Amino acid sequence: MSIKVLIVDDSAFMRVVLAKLLEQDSLIQVIGTARNGREAVERVKSLHPDVVTMDIEMPELNGIDALKSIMKECPTPVIMLSAHTTEGAEATLDGLKYGAFDFLAKPENLYRANLDAIGAELLVMVKSAAKTQVQRLAPPVSNSVMTSPRSSVRPTVKTDKKVRQIVAIGTSTGGPRALETILTSLPASIGCPILIVQHMPPNFTKSLADRLNRMCQIGIVEATHNQGIENGVAYIAPGGYHMEVVFRNGQYRIGLNEQPKRNEHRPSVDVLFESVAELDDVKKHYVLMTGMGNDGAQGMLVGKQKGASSTMAESQKTCVVFGMPKAAIELNCVDQVVPLPMIGEKIIEQLQRYS
Question: Is 242 in the active site?
């Protein structure tokens, strides 16, 4: 059975390009197009596509407002197409908050772009989106749903300046909202640094860190090279760079590099997890959450083999995409499989246990 796709873009040229990229795969059928958000909502209702690709900046009704209407009136997996700008990153994060499945950053110049690579990425996204249970994409009813674990967390973790424990988190598709759920549940007194790889291109990780920092009790920053890590702060790997943790000059520090992609990603969760596994004199905790593919599974296995204090994977029932956690579970390196709303609390429990 074919996957029916609706393409929404105000550029006729972009609609043609996307249709050609998608119809390279015999399993995908482009059943229609729309020039703006208003047409998009109407055609989702009439055509019932399996997946929608949605431009963000459009006349009459923009992509974010169209997404809101679609998720309210006829929920359908939507892949947002975003500009490589700070404004585009902010709008994309809004889209993910309101229920978009994932996003693809538009090339700045289509004539110079690697269309084969873009097409391959888009095809994987569309096929994964078509399999997704759409109710998992629905936006939360209220902020209290996103932060519900906070009231039950009663940390007694010892807090001092010395880094004694590290939490490393990896995620991809569905990750921004999952990170919001977890990080807003953690108290300012948490007694360790948190290292995060979220698969995103440059600009987007900075916007994500800034947005989460405004929401959370702990500090959230986009990591910089040679930065010393501190307790009570989460560091998000910048798009386009692998992030490692190293011990240098008497302090645990961030190391960034542009080595080849791992598992088609830079930053890669495996690179982070493997670097944390090599650290001495620190308790290590690994968390792998929603995302396509298997990035992070091998790194978690290495961490487990080198004496990780805890390894945790998000359960299938709350993942937008179960790929990354499933890959780790299949390697038998996961101690606990935990639904998303409970992960923050479980992290605190593990930190208490080893403090």
Answer: no
Annotated catalytic residue within 199, 242, 265, 285: 199
> Please, what is the Cα angle at 200 between 301 and 323, to 5 degrees?
40
Is residue 106 a contact partner of residue 74, using CB atoms and an 8 Å limit?
Answer: no
Q: Which of 172, 268, 275, 310 is catalytic?
A: 172
199 in active site:
yes
Task: Using CA atoms of 190, 193, 198, 203 in order, give the dihedral in degrees to the nearest 10.
Answer: 110
pTM: 0.91
Query: For the chain, which domains are there?
Result: 3-137 (3.40.50.2300), 143-354 (3.40.50.180)
Give how far Cα 107 sits from Cα of 110, 203, 263, 281, Å.
6, 14, 21, 44
Asked if 140 and 146 count as a contact pair (C-beta separation under 8 A), the reply is yes
Q: For this structure, is 84 an active site residue? A: no
Residues 32-85 have pLDDT tens digits of 999 999 999 999 999 999 999 999 999 999 999 999 999 999 999 999 998 877
Residue 287: pLDDT band with limits 50, 70, 90: very high
The CB density around residue 86, as the number of other CB atoms within 10 Å, is: 13
Helix (H) or strand (E) holding 54: strand 51-55
Summarised one tens digit per residue, pLDDT across range 244-268 is 999 998 899 999 999 999 999 999 9
- Of the residues 50, 285, 295, 310, which is catalytic? 295
